[in-house]
Amino acid sequence: MPLVALVRKWAKRKRVTPAQFALVWMLSRKAWIAPIPGTTNPAHLDDFLGAATVRLTPYEMEEFDKEYARIDLIGHRADPFTESQIDK
């Protein structure tokens, strides 16, 4: 699972959990992206909140995106109808 390995590598580099890094990366993509994580587990909530204090520099974003682009992702993001509505 190359994507999981990449996220783990970057999480270690940033000294955060993989879940925190995933949130940090998503929040760093565009200013209008607003994830809505949900949980009933207090430990997961702490994980989510911890991501708010971490930043990626533009250089780090570029570096991560280059590594991410080299990974062949297999499968679909969503069902066919939902995929037809993405980026419209």
TrEMBL record:
Q: Where is the NADP-dependent oxidoreductase domain?
A: 4-66
What SUPFAM superfamilies does its record include? NAD(P)-linked oxidoreductase
Q: Which InterPro entries match?
A: NAD(P)_OxRdtase_dom_sf (IPR036812), NADP_OxRdtase_dom (IPR023210)
From which domain of life does this come?
Bacteria
Q: Give any Pfam family that matches.
A: Aldo_ket_red
- Its recorded name reads NADP-dependent oxidoreductase domain-containing protein
Species lineage: Bacteria, Pseudomonadati, Bacteroidota, Bacteroidia, Bacteroidales
